[in-house]
Amino acid sequence: MANKATSIKLFSFSTPQMRAFHLTWMAFFVCFFAWFACAPLMPVIKGEFGLTPAQIANINIAAVAITIIVRLVIGPLCDRYGPRKAYTGLLLLGALPVLGVAAAQTYESFLFFRLLIGAVGASFVITQYHTSVMFAPNVVGTANAAAAGWGNAGGGVVQSTMPMIMAAMVMLGVNETMGWRAALVVPGVLMLVMAFVYYRFTQDCPDGNYADLRAAGVALEGGKKGGWESFKLAAANYRVWLLFVTYGACFGVEIFIHNIAATYYVDTFKLSLPQAGLAAGSFGLLALFARALGGYVSDKVAYRGSLNSRVTLLFVMMIGEGFGLLMFSHAGSVAYAVASMLVFGLFTHMACGATYALVPFVDKRALGGVAGIIGAGGNVGAVAAGFLLKAVGNTQQTLSILGVMVAASALCALAARFSATTVEENKIAGAAA
């Protein structure tokens, strides 16, 4: 595993490292697009099915609930079978409920498919795993954050694009009921195409595919077998659970905002569906640079300081996110709401990038297990936020409570500081890279 890339050559596709980098963010973009394709259309879907606020809350919770289980499983599967096969399988299987939700005729069937669609959210873990095994310590934070950030931008693009796709369908003569259904077919087809591309043009690590390397007796980062052994090693590490909490407080909030933003702008500020989509989409589009910025800054502070400088950066980002969320929750006008959303969104995305800039250093013997458990934390946070909204019954109050909880969770970041020995080992590895 000595052939990791020590630099990111953005315009190159000639090396397996850069092909993996570009295809992971593209695959994650498609998955994120499919994952939240229903969210900006919910005002229309709500009217067709006559959904109550409680039913909408159930749908939002379902969208992220199953992702917890799949993320826990998919990380160790990457250690066992390699990220190439794991991603291909997830794209193929995930396309089925994405296509199925377009055929839903009742609230129950819609809820069922929305639950299953949540599985594609596990694509994030594979994305982070694949870039972690392809890039050296001096750039791995930037690689992880950029790939995830550009993929996450699918959540912003989908907010503004899906209403436009639906509007185009209606202009072609399709009624509104068929319009949203036809629009939801688009992300399902994209996933099938991406599955073929990923399998054809990537490999598991710089030296080849896991099956071939194991047959040749080569030692891999995930251990000899991966799977359950990887999960047990990761679960025994307390830092994994501290970062599980911080990721729940940043990515969990991000997912929650994706689910409620469009409807929030329509209900609170009386915006039209396209206007609400553009306002909500601006939050997701921050991921184009903000998450990558979090990883990049983490690499830089680690180079000038130490591994624990990454921890301190995450703490600062979490505090900023908490205060920004409080600003957003008290916004009295649409202009102030959008401005404050962009402020807390910047800290949120950077905190996500800073978290996964730490992941490759937590336990190299169980990279998949670590990435999977921490990734699942994001969805636990989103589910918890969904239940909080359901209990409180008021979006603004829920956002205010979340702001306080996020700021408090920043203490978990400080508690995840590494020992002097680990800091020194990674300083030597960084210098060697």
UniProtKB/TrEMBL annotation:
Family as reported in the entry's similarity comment: Belongs to the major facilitator superfamily. Nitrate/nitrite porter (TC 2.A.1.8) family.
GO MF assignments: nitrate transmembrane transporter activity
Organism for this UniProt entry: Massilia eburnea
TM helices/strands, residue ranges: 20-42, 54-74, 86-104, 110-129, 150-172, 178-199, 240-266, 272-290, 311-328, 334-359, 366-389, 401-420
GO biological process entries: nitrate assimilation
Subcellular location: Membrane
PANTHER family hit by this protein: HIGH-AFFINITY NITRATE TRANSPORTER 2.3
Keyword annotations: Membrane, Nitrate assimilation, Transmembrane, Transmembrane helix
Topology in the lipid bilayer: Multi-pass membrane protein
Taxonomic lineage: Bacteria, Pseudomonadati, Pseudomonadota, Betaproteobacteria, Burkholderiales
Domain named Major facilitator superfamily (MFS) profile: residues: 20-427
Record carries keyword Transmembrane: yes
Descriptive protein name: MFS transporter
Principal cellular location given in the protein's record: membrane
Gene3D superfamilies with a match to the protein in the record: MFS general substrate transporter like domains
Cited SUPFAM superfamilies: MFS general substrate transporter (SSF103473)
An example Gene Ontology CC term for this record: membrane
Top-rank taxon: Bacteria
Tagged with keyword Iron: no
